[in-house]
Amino acid sequence: MKLTRRHLTLAAGMMTAVALTAGALIASTAQAAPAMGGAAPAFTGVTAAGGEISLADFAGKTVVLEWTNDGCPFVQKHYATPPANMQTLQKGAAADDVVWISVISSAPGKQGYSDAARAKELTASRGAAPAHVVLDESGAIGRLYGAKTTPHMFIITPGGELVYDGAIDSKASSKVDDIAGATNYVAAALADLEAGKPVATPVTKPYGCSVKY
Amino acid sequence: MRRIRSILTALAAGLCLLAPAASAQLGGPERYAQSELISERTSAAPGETVFLALKMVMQPGWHVYWRNAGDAGLPPQLILKDTSNVPAEALGEFLWPLAHVLPVVEGEIMDYGYDDEVVFALPLTVPSDAVGEVRIEATADYLICEAVCVPETQDVSLVLAVGEPAADVRSGDLISAWISKVPAPFPGEARIDDAAAPWTLSLAKAGGFPEGARLRFFPFEHEISHPAAQPQREGPEGASLSLTPDRAGKVGEVLAGVVRVDAPGAEPVGYEIRATRGGVLAGTADRAVADAVVPEAPAALGLQGLLALAGFALLGGLILNLMPCVLPVLSMKALGMVSAASSGHAGELKSHGLWYTGGVLVSFAALGGAILAVREATGFATLGFQLQHAPTVAVLALIMFAVGLWLMGFFELGTSIQNTGSGLASRGGALGAFFTGVLAAVVGAPCVGPFLGAALGAVMSQPAPGVIAVFLAMGFGMALPFLILSFVPGLHRLLPKPGKWMETLKQAFAFPMFLTAAWLLSVLAGLAGAGAVGWTLAGATTLAFAVWVARGGGMIRRGAALAALAIGFGLPAVQANVPAGPAPGDVAAEDYAEDAWSPEKVEALLAEGRPVFVDFTASWCASCQVNKLTTLNTKRVRDAFEDANVAFLAADFTRKDPVIAQELKRRGRAGVPMYLWYPAGESEPQILPELLSQELVIGLAVGG
What pLDDT is attached to residue B412? Predict the structure, then answer.
């Protein structure tokens, strides 16, 4: 029997097929959170105002990242007026030339998802004062930082170092009354940075609803 | 007038019926959980400690959280209101039943909690100056979530009469049942090796863990990453888990938490552990346990996901045509079918193609159905279980070896099913084409596992319709080439002509089969050790013997061959089994005897000079269950009793027993629990407090 090209092609095709399908599909998502004291992960995001911002744009300024979801009772607690906890922090930050970025990582169809129009309306109606609102509907920036809850706060030094990762304050609850008696970790960390001291409490357990990736 | 009245009445009645329906549509349920306070007692004596419970019944799909909610969430709490007539200190902490994982975002966000119904028992110490009634008014304050979270509160209350203790048997039974789900102290040793990441948590206990058990560690705090997988290893002494530390996670003095053990065919069991720092315990990390695809039932795949999987399955089916199992058979049968039909009418060719496809689809659907049935029966949610269950791996290896022998031509399958299939397939017409399809599917099935197992594993945990859809897609992919061949005229002319090359090719394919058998043997070695591999090789030899004996035909030879076949497959399957551990839930040393109480028995034991411990208990007595959990059933106490030769007697008051009732009355107690301690030789017992502690009981055993 003559070994024709067709036979060879057939055989080669079979071998490849066997080899390919013998491979196993193991999906592993290794979620490595950014290390404390290390460089904060660089990101670029679309803002509600319609532009694009990158973390690098704010080199030389302190940056606060706030993960938010307006439907989450824990976020509502901090935006409730009175006492307008989050808004006060944001205005204070603006006065101190600290860049406050609110990030919305809810996926389309999930609680808290906002397009640019809704995000702008939300900022206005809540009386919020972030420098920027980033629309992270793919969840890429959230996953980059390992954001798990709303609210989840991160603070980055002017040098680009991550110095705070955790809850907004010390009382994990959805009750507005608990704000007064709680220690506000964000305010404390910003004060430490202002005074040139290392942040006393760099990591705390964030509380809130899970981020709706 | 009357007519108008009746019309108005009918209208009003109709509106009344409509209104609740309308409000239900508009407003939704008032709350997603219903809470109530229940108690094991209707009355209690001053100074007594009795057990209450917060019972929560949740809407389907909604869940509340464990004492450690995990990445996101808040545990429920009971807050006493000022209108109660007991101080806040009178209420103790919740007893947390074993929770389960709530994967919020697979691999990224993980919580711990309860759904459906949960009962949190908590102790109430009745003030010693209480008179009349004890009034508990409290608020159940909890976060309840589905896809979104809602914080809810509900006012709950309970009134207990103060006076002679009287049981509330129904509530007591319920509370006791939930107390038995509270993780008991681990009756062995737990160690955490945090020298490097990932950490290793090793757990050693007498008899190890049951075969096939999957473990997971739930920390009380946040030292570890909650969503990270916890690869498990095991050995004769126990098991160990690889824990990924959280970003700033480090172990304090001990790593405290709960280990959940899910063993096939058994209720899940929890153990509370306090792991001290140190090296991995010997005999707990000898071999790896293959990961199940998912630890808990995941949400059903969306339509998109299912379509993607079906697409993969189709591709897999196409490739299945080229698998060593299938190709030799197909190439001969199907080519023969096509070339035979090509000499007939074009119309017949098409219909044969359709019937062939039908045969394949029906067989694959049947295969899918069979696997679903196995899944229902055994609770195995993954196809991967094929390669985790040692006897299955051994049998698969032997099948691969047998098929290799056949491909080499060492035997023809004479009057076997194979030929029955071919016989049917050689029947002309549509039926022949149908059975060719069935034959192709049957022959292809053993190859599906090893080669497509990983892809199938992803679909095995889905609901039944999804599974069948994927199997059908696979079948369609397999039938597709021949369907196309029969529909596109002239295409079959491109196929190689049958000839001797087919025989050579068939023999060549024996070698991939032998290689597959070798790979399966290596998997078996990892699962069950070298001994199992040895037995399987012996089985393979027996198979070769069966083949040799069957040559030459004749009843005796055939019979001998069949016997050898049975032994060849059966023995390795049995021997490959990893020795099973004792049943889960045996917190106490099993051989510790517990006798039924009677006054005569006490006398006899005292005469022998043994100390005696009598436990007056009942199934509806929640305090009794707590004492069993924290003290009486623990290894420390049982060991102390054994060392001191204490006789343990149990008086079960679940059904009213006049003898037991009389003893209770005699000792001045109106009900259970009651614990009597007779030191060796003493005829008058000490009456112990109704809430025991390990220190108290061990002190008695050692002292008396």
Answer: 66
> Does any CB of chain A come closer than 8 Å to the CB of residue B149?
yes
What are the Cα distances from residue A196, in Å, to A38, A106, A193, A201?
18, 35, 5, 15
What's the gap in Å between the CA of B416 and the closest CA on chain A? Answer: 28
Instruction: Write out chain A residues lying below 8 Å of B147, CB-based.
Output: 110-111, 212
When the pLDDT of each residue in chain B is averaged and rounded to a whole number, the result is 80
Quick check: A141 and A105 in contact, CB under 8 A? yes
Tens-place pLDDT, residues B267-289:
999 999 999 999 999 888 888 88
- CB under 8 Å to B488, separation ≥6 — which residues? none
- Residues of chain B in contact with residue A26, where contact means CB-CB under 8 angstroms, are 454
Domain boundary among B182, B198, B226: B182
Q: For residues B91 and B78, is the Cβ–Cβ distance under 8 A?
A: yes
DSSP, collapsed to helix, strand or coil, labels residue B577 as coil
Return the domain boundaries, chain A. Answer: 63-202
Question: For residue range B429-462, what is the model confidence (pLDDT) as tens digits?
Answer: 677 777 777 777 776 766 665 556 555 656 666 6
A-B contacts (CB, under 8 Å): 98
- Candidates A9, A165, A209, A213: best to mutate against B (most CBs of B within 10 A) is A209
pLDDT 10s digits, A138-194:
999 999 999 999 999 999 999 999 999 999 999 999 999 999 999 999 999 999 999
Comparing C-alpha atoms, which of A206, A189, A102 is closest to residue A152?
A206
Residues of the domain holding B75: 33-182
CATH of domain A63-202: 3.40.30.10
Closest approach of A165 to chain B, Cα-based (Å): 10
The total domain count for chain B is 4
Query: What ipTM, to 2 d.p.?
Result: 0.79
Could you give the CA distance from residue B175 to residue B55 in angstroms, rounded to a whole number? 9
Residues B58 and B154 in one domain: yes
By Cβ distance, the residue of A1, A205, A209 closest to B222 is A205
CB contact under 8 A, B151 and A13: no
Tens-digit pLDDT profile for residues B323-371: 766 666 666 565 555 555 556 555 667 777 788 888 888 988 888 888 7
